[in-house]
Amino acid sequence: MDNLSMVTDLYEFSMANGYRQTIDEEQGVFDIFFRKVPDQGSFVISAGLEQVVKSLQNFHFDESDITYLRSLHLFKENFLDYLKTFKFDCQVSAIPEGTPVFPREPMLTIKGPLLQTQLFETLLLSILNHQSLIATKARRITYAAGKRPVMEFGARRAQGPESATYGARAAVIGGCTSTSNVLAAKKFGIPSAGTMAHAWIEAFPDELTAFEKWAEVYPDNASLLVDTYDVLKSGVPNAIKVFRKLKQAGHQPVGIRIDSGDITQLARGARKLLDDAGFPDAKITASNALDEHVIQSLLGEGAPLDNFGVGEKLITSASSPVLSGVYKLAAIEQNNQLIPKIKVSASREKLTLPGLKQVYRLYYPGTKHAFADVIALQDEKLDKPIDVIKANPLATKRDHMIDDYDAVPLQEKVLDATNLKTDLPAVFDIQKHSKEMLAEIPAATQRLVNPDEFPVYITQKLANLQDELLQRDKVFK
Questions:
Q1: pLDDT at position 474, please?
Q2: Which Pfam families has this protein been placed in (predicted)?
Q3: How far apart are the first and last CA of the chain?
Q4: Strands 307-310, 150-152: pairing kind
Q5: CA pair distance 378, 111, nearest whole angstrom
Q6: CA-based radius of gyration for the chain
């Protein structure tokens, strides 16, 4: 695992150095959460926790790092000495990867020496924002595809090799079945997928020869790209000729891929040609600038497609390329006393929730049907019935009472210093967990367009604490 300790904005080093000189003994509590969901969706699929854990366990500064920081002439030697012998000494709790998470809910909470916790902001946000963004986009795309497999094809369009590799992992968390990225396949145990590009066909004297040579090399992986010249007049007829030879030799042809043109009409024509030739099991894969809306349109038009290969619009979340997760101080600890903190601005929308908290998913009693989430202070016991308030400070009719429910906590302990407190599941186990959690929330909440709001509340005790801090600072008066 690479050491990512220097993936830190300068102000974090400057503040940590300042803490070292002033309030060195204080502990800090920071939450990571988001206020807005990409693509006007209802929720985000959490992803990136495994890399967060491994990065924190490996967080250290080598001699070249210290030399560089010293060269900036900003930091005291006692701070640089602290970094030389840096030892991670924080507690981390988080919502597991693959879980649908809603605005204002703490995805991750970190508690430890204020100097340390300040240094992790950029690193943790860059990991969780990116991977949760891609997992969320993949969820939307695979939702549109229904039961048809979606292959992640985006490495060439990703913003760098690490984004391509961890983005592929996030895409699988969101529902993809395979990746074209061989490093991601190796690293995370993901099936690798892909056959040929147009260059293979162009490298031979004609299309039929190109297909025949491919089938000679890969007789059991004969998925042929049929749109280099003409899908219906050339590509599919030549593919059928090769498929017949393969079948006679005892091999089962895989199918064809269409990467351009009017995919609905081409797929219909290709399906008829394949069926008439005796290859009803040959799959038709579509690729080329697909996203959830294009896939939904293709299937709505009745395109006979079996698989999708999705690249740039998935790996970059092109239609909504930012998840604006934030890292906010929720409390400090002085002399073993927790002191809640709040961030305010000119807008109520940016109010933060103070104190150490837990997120609960509420279910109808005795069922797995979730109907709301509640954010509570970590040490409070939920009552029945419970008075709650909408977490969104801009909401109208915020007060609500919930009579009966089963409450399941979402955040769990992850790290205590460098000691792992939970399992780090394999990526397809995370995907399975995600599908199970998605099955528990209302279908209307999962719609791609105009999804229903899934209510997120805060407890009355948390609301009272927030109001107390606002009144103390005479905010919004």
A1: 65
A2: NAPRTase, NAPRTase_C, NAPRTase_N
A3: 50
A4: parallel
A5: 13
A6: 26
Q: In 34-123, where do the E strands start and end?
A: 44-45, 91-94, 100-101, 108-113
Residue recorded with tokens 């039961």? 147
Tracing tokens 């002085």 back to the chain, one arrives at 334
Instruction: Indicate the SS3 state at residue 258.
Output: strand
Residue 313 CA to residue 298 CA, distance in Å, equals 16
Record the tokens describing residue 318, joined without a space. 């092109």
| Helix (H), strand (E), coil (C) string for 362-374 | EECCCCCCEEEEE
Give the phi and the psi of residue 337 in degrees, each rounded to 5. -110, 125
Q: What is the pLDDT of residue 349?
A: 83
Residue 190 to residue 170: CA distance in whole angstroms = 11
Cβ(328)–Cβ(117) below 8 Å? no
- In the predicted model, residues of the chain with pLDDT beneath 50 are 477
Q: What is the greatest pairwise CA distance in the chain?
A: 83
Helix or strand holding residue 245 (H, E): helix 236-248
Buried b or exposed e, range 31-63, using 16+ CB within 10 angstroms: bbbbeebbbebbbbbbbbbbbbbbbbeebebee
Two tokens, residue 183? 């490093």
3-state secondary structure of 310: strand
Quick one: pLDDT at residue 244?
Answer: 98
Do the beta carbons of residue 1 and residue 52 sit within 8 Å?
A: no
**Full set of structural domains in the chain with CATH:** 10-134+321-472 (3.20.140.10), 200-282 (3.20.20.70)
Contact in structure between 379 and 354 (CB atoms under 8 Å): no
| Contact yes or no for 366/448 (Cβ under 8 A) | no
pLDDT given for residue 121 in this prediction? 98
Contact in structure between 120 and 31 (CB atoms under 8 Å)? no
Q: Name residue 32's amino acid.
A: I
At residue 405, φ and ψ (nearest 5 deg) are: -170, 160
**pLDDT at residue number 398:** 85
Query: In angstroms, rounded to a whole number, what is the distance separating the alpha carbons of residues 301 and 286?
Result: 14
